[in-house]
Amino acid sequence: MTAGGVSLPELPEPAVRLESTPIGAPAAARGRLTIDGTTVIGLVGVVLVGGLILTAILAPFLAPYDPRERVGIPFQRPSALYPLGTNDIGQDLLSELIYGARVSLTVGIVAATVALIIGTTVGVLAGFYRRIVGSVLMRFVDILLIIPFLPLLIVLAAYLGRSLLNTILIIGVLIWAATARVIRSQVLSLTQRDYIRAARALGASDARIIGRHILPRVLLLGISQFVQATSGAILLEASLSFLGLGDPLQKSWGSILYWAQVRGAFLTDAWLWWVLPPGLLIGAAALGFALMGFALEQRINPQLRSGR
Amino acid sequence: MLGYRHGGLAAVTAPVERAAPVDGGARDLVEVDDLKVHFPIFGSLGRRHGDVRAVDGVSLRIRRGETFGLVGESGSGKTTLGHAILRLVHSTAGQIRFDGQDVAAVGARELRRLRRRMQIILQDPYGSLDPYLRVEAIIGEALDIHGLDQGPDRKPRIAALLSLVGLDAQYANRFPHAFSGGQRQRIGIARALAVRPEFIVCDEPISALDVSIQAQILNLLLRLRSELGLTYLFIAHDLSVVRHISDRVGVMYLGTMVEVGPAVSIYARSGHPYTRALLSAIPVPNPGAERRRRRVILRGDIPSPASPPPGCRFHTRCWLYEGLGSPERCRTEPPIPRTIAPDHQVACHFADETLASEVGVVQSDAPVQVGPLPDVPMHGAPMPGAPMPGAPM
């Protein structure tokens, strides 16, 4: 209530003050806007991810050439015309990179959505029906978490064929296990709350209890898991494409690296403009989402919210 | 039965038609026979190590319109018993009948119908309300589940319920965190009343509240009982609270009922050493009597319900057992309840010796106040009988 250093007289307080902030979250979760380490980390993530998303959306305006067109002589060094040179068939590398953001981000986000849906469903069911359904589902989750990831990914990708949709689905159905675990543990704690017991005593069906009291409470947690899953999915997509198991028709950062590898760019000077930029972008995307996810989780997960 | 009338609220809180009781109302509302609720203990390899016998062979009757007080220490199984009656936990053996219907056996649809007739008020007012829902949604949920007062009736009905429990109807759009413990408990009571129940399990409804608020909530419950014709199972861990509200009292120890009887009889001539010990712990509001009060302090904690002592479960902590020179009977033979006064049963081999003892007997020159405590109207709440906002006249 101070304006320009002059403190104004306080308005008389009403006898009973029940003005609540119309936000349902408990006090701590609402979070005052304080700039702490977590916030800075989160903001760095937002800037990285935001920049990449903007690049992906504005690709037609940012890219100097159509990445599918042969616009120059193959294997050119960077020049004014081709800022990052050209690839083995004379396509502009910078344009490829800019358009590649679309594929990498799409795969990352859609695959993470698939993972979020499966993971939340499994987590909620396993937490709510913890006896038989829960045991069976969680043993399955354990198995998924134990299996070495990349080999399974490669086998599946090779078996199902190379297409963008397959890439997304394969990644999505492999990375939901972690989400399911986190969601389940939250549901386990929620189902012990007294208000769930009260709802049961009122005759609420399982569907109602899940839909009204449980799902909305795990959604925030799901979002932080989703963001982290996106980071993982982007890395997996890059791995698959680098191994030549991505969609051959799509230009992603991983497939740029694949062709760089195939054409020996790793062994020549060309690594500087052919290998390094996509590598950095993959790193930036994965890091951006990971940082955002970390900051979100710090805010949301009560177990991690320390010293508050 | 008075039905759900309060002030000018008859229109919104009119009693629902009830099915006629099976045998003309003579039947007790709640009948529990030899109820057992055991929780399995699983070891690391999924092997069953044994059971926690939370409730181990309890029988009781709750009559229509009466308040049955259930007392016992933590871990005596009283809450589990209350939850089992509402089928919030599954019973292992024995029978629970509500108005003649076997609660444990009814199907999902019938159970929902039953749950309209019996409700629960939970102990912790901070945990029993979903913090993310507004009061309106919390109370409204009860209505929605059973399709009661939908559409244009919903808002006035919620307002009427809030008024009924002494809260201002305008609080309906607040979140639980805006309320004090006592106010939250009132919201919990309103939620239980929303479905117009006949029977309410009050699971230590005032234990978590400030002493100054306890009397308010207790009096609210008393008022609702007489206005709405409710039957209560009132669970508490000390006898002094129960005395104000109960017609009959049951005392539980380690999953068994050790004494049941009319409240007056229990307080005047208890026949069980455990009940006597509980009674002796009640302070007497009279310095002279307080000085003469013989207290028995129970040593140690209640034994593990996973491996209860053989014979009489109380013998490990019983003052009378010691006083009688540790009779073998107490260690080997579980006592069978026997009647020591009209409607008053005790499960103790030495009930007569207990009756002869002076432990826990209130010796006061002046009669102890047993009537209802003075009702302190809540700050900002409408006085009872004042016109209710939002209620159609």
Protein architecture, described:
The complex is a heterodimer of chains A (308) and B (393). Chain A is mainly alpha-helical and 308 residues long. Chain A has one domain: Orthogonal Bundle (MetI-like fold). Chain A has twelve helices and two strands, in the order ββαααααααααααα. Chain A has helices spanning 27-30, 37-57, 59-62, 93-128, 132-146, 149-160, 164-174, 176-191, 194-201, 206-242, 253-262, 271-300; strands at residues 2-3, 6-7. The model of chain A is unreliable at 1-31 (pLDDT under 50). Among the domains of chain B are: 30-40 and 51-132 and 192-246, 3-Layer(aba) Sandwich (Rossmann fold), CATH 3.40.50.300; 259-356, no CATH class. The radius of gyration of chain B is 22 Å and the shape is globular. Chain B has an eight-stranded mixed beta sheet with strand order 6-7-8-3-9-10-12-11, sandwiched between helices. A four-stranded antiparallel beta sheet of chain B has the order 2-1-4-5. In chain B, helix 3 (135-145) packs parallel to helix 5 (181-193) and helix 5 (181-193) runs parallel beside helix 6. Chain B has 393 residues and is α/β, with parallel strands linked by helices. Classes of the chains: A mainly alpha (308), B alpha/beta (393). Chain A binds chain B through residues 15-16, 18, 20, 22, 24-27, 193-195, 197-205, 208, 212-213, 216-217, and chain B through 83, 86, 88, 111-112, 115-116, 119-120, 122-124, 127-134, 138, 141-142, 145-146, 171, 174-175, 177-179, 188, 191, 195, 379-380.
